[in-house]
Amino acid sequence: MQFIALTSIGIETLLAEELQQLGAQVGKQSVGSVVFSAELPLAQKICLSTRFATRVLMKIAEKEDVKNKTDLYNLARYQTWGEWLTPDTTFAVDFSGTNTELKNTQFSGLVIKDAIVDYFQDLYEARPNVDKQDAQVRVAARYHQNKLDLYIDYSGTGLSQRGYRTGQGRAPIKEHLAAALIYRSGWLKDVSQPLFDPCCGSGTLLIEAASMANNEAPGLRHKQFAFERLPSFVESEYQEIRQQLIDQEDPKKLYLIGQDIDGFVLSKAQNNARAAGVEQYIKFSKGDASNLKPVSKRSGVVLSNLPYGERMGGTAELINLYRNMGMSFKKHYANWHLALLSSDEALSKLLKIVRHKRYKFKNGPIDCVLNTYILDEKQVVTSEHTTELNYADSTAFANRLKKNKQGLKNWLKQHAIGAYRLYDADIPQYNVAVDIYNDHAVIYEYAAPKDVNEEVSNKRLQDIVYLTSKQLDIPAEKIVVKVRKKQKGDAQYRTISQQEQSMVVSEYGAKFKVNLFDYLDTGLFLDHRLARQFIQQNSQDKRFLNLFAYTGTASVQAAIGGAKSITTVDMSKTYINWGRENFELNNIQNPRYRFFQADCLAWLDQAQGEYDLIFLDPPTFSNSKRMTDAFDVQRDHIKLFDTVKKILSEDGVLFFSNNKRGFKMDEAALLELGLQATNISDKTISPDFKRNKNIHNSWLITRV
C-alpha cells in the first residue's frame, strides 16, 4: 500500500530517514510530506513509532484529468469502499484544491460524499452517516492541477501529541519539532553527556530527549489510531506490534537539566515529565537565562527554544537576554555544543558566537532557525577581546544620557518630577527618545529614513537598550521599546501588547495612571506638563472644557485647581474610562464633572452653554472612521475656532495646542472672527524638552 506522511516544513528529510529505518520504501519528498510504501502491519508500527510525522494517510486511488463534477463523482463512486467502511460506519470527507469548474471545496466534498453513499445504497440498500466532528473514518481528497488523490486517514490527527502534556507555557513547541531539534543538536550521538535547556518552559525538549534516548515509541501513549476503526483491523496483530516496541525500550542513565525563570511554568514541566514517566531523568530548577551559571563539570549540549517577542515583556528584555546569554556561554560553557532555536536572526547575532550550522524550521506559523555552535577554545578566546557594544561610537549616546540627567537633576528635585524626557534624538545617528517613568524607561525608536541600513539601525538600537540599562541602572524588564511613527485612522487607539501593567506617577499635586506596555502612548503627554500646570493655576471657579481630552489629565489638574465645572470629551471609550480612573485616583468626585465619549467635532456642533477656560489639543491630522470628517489642523483650525467661539464666554480663554511642525496661525482670519492669539509656546516647554523646541505649539486665544 502507498501512504503519505505529513510533517512541518524543515523536518521532511528527517522523516524520510526515519521511515526508511523503520522498513518502509520511501518515495517522493515534498514540502511538508513524504510518500512511502508499506504493508499494513508496518504502517501501524510507523504510526506507533514516528517522532517526526504529524499524520499518516493511506492512498486508495489517484486519477489524472479530473476536470468537473462528473469526473469527480465517477472516480469516487467506483472505489471499493467496503474495504474501509460499513453501512454502520460514520464518515466525513475533507477536500482541498480547486479549478475553474470545481470552485468550492465544500461542494466537491459533497460530490464525493454522495458517491460513497450511492455505493453502499446500491450494494446494501443502506447508507453510512456523515459525522463531520467525530467521524469513525475520514476520507481526504487532494486535488491539484486536475489530478485527484483519494486517501483514508490512517493515523488520525495529532500524531505529535504524545499524551503527556498536561500544561504548557505561552509559546509551546510541538513535540515532533522538539524531536527534530534534538536530532539536529547532535546530542543523540552520545546521550551520556549532559543536555541543558536554559529556557525549558513546560519541558517538551527534555521530555522528548529522554524518550528518544530510551528508545520509547511515542505512539504507545496514543489513545486510539484511526486505523483501529477500519474493517481490516486485526487487534491481535496490533497488540503483537505494540509488545515488540515495548520490548525494544532501553532505559539509560541520563543527565538532563531544565531551567526557567517562571516558577509556575516549571511546575507544569515537572507535571508533564511525571505524566511521561521520565521525571527521574530530568532535574528542573528556577533560574535566569541572562545570568547563567555552570550546570555540569562535564561539557555537553545546550539545546533551547529561545524566547521571542510573545514570550517576554519586550525588545529590551530580549536584547539583554541574548547579549548576556552569549557572554555566559563563552564564560562558563567552553567545549560545549549549542543548538538554539530563534525566530529573530538579529537577536541571534547578539550572542556574538560564530555559527557552525543552521537549519530552517516552522514553529507553527513562525519561521525559525536552529543555529548550532561549537564553543571551542578559539571562540572563547576571541570573545574575550570583543567589546560589549556593536559600535564604539555608541558610548557618545551613554555620555549624553549622563550629561542630560545631570543637567535636569536640580529641576527634577525642585518640582518632584518622576516622569520626564531624558533624551530626544540629541545625536542624529541615535534616533530615539528616552522617557523616564519613576524606575522605568520607555525608548521610542523614531522610524528610520529609507536610506538607513536596517541592520545598522537594529544594532544601534541594541546598543541604546544596553547602555540605557547600564547608564541609568534600570533592569531590562523595566525598559520598554516602541517604534514612533505616524498613526493612521484608529491606529493610535490600538493596543500593541496586552500586559495590563500600569503604574502611578505624580505631577504638581496630581496622580496619573500610566501604562508603559499596552499602547504606543503611555496615557500622559509629558510635553504638556506646563500646559496642565497653567490649567491648574487658572481654573479656580471656572467652567472648564477639555476637548480631544485623551486620558483626562488636564481635567484632573483643573479639578485640583478648583474648577466650578469640568466637561471632558474624547471619542475613545478606553481613554474616557482611563480619565475616570484618574479622577478616582485623586479622590475627585463632583456631579458637575462630566465625561462624554464622542467625536469632538460632532459634539461641538451640538454643544450648548458657555465655558470660561477651554483646552483644545486636536490631532495634527485624522481620518478616523469614527470622526465625521477628515481633519487637518493647518487647514481646519479657523473653522474649528469659529465653532468653539460659540461656547467661549465673553472673558473666556481658549488654550490651543498642537504638535504640527511648521504650523502657522492664520491671524488675519482669526481677527475676522473677533479673536486674537498670543503665542506662549516657549512658556509651555519645560526643561526636559528644551532640546526640541518644535515639540508643540501653544496659544492663548481670547476675544478682541
Automatic annotation (TrEMBL):
It comes from the Bacteria. It is an enzyme of class 2 (transferase). The gene is rlmL. It catalyses: guanosine(2069) in 23S rRNA + S-adenosyl-L-methionine = N(2)-methylguanosine(2069) in 23S rRNA + S-adenosyl-L-homocysteine + H(+); guanosine(2445) in 23S rRNA + S-adenosyl-L-methionine = N(2)-methylguanosine(2445) in 23S rRNA + S-adenosyl-L-homocysteine + H(+). It is found in: Cytoplasm. One of its GO terms (molecular function) is 23S rRNA (guanine(2445)-N(2))-methyltransferase activity. PROSITE patterns: THUMP. Belongs to the methyltransferase superfamily. RlmKL family. This is Ribosomal RNA large subunit methyltransferase K/L. PANTHER family: RIBOSOMAL RNA LARGE SUBUNIT METHYLTRANSFERASE K/L (PTHR47313), RIBOSOMAL RNA LARGE SUBUNIT METHYLTRANSFERASE K_L (PTHR47313:SF1).
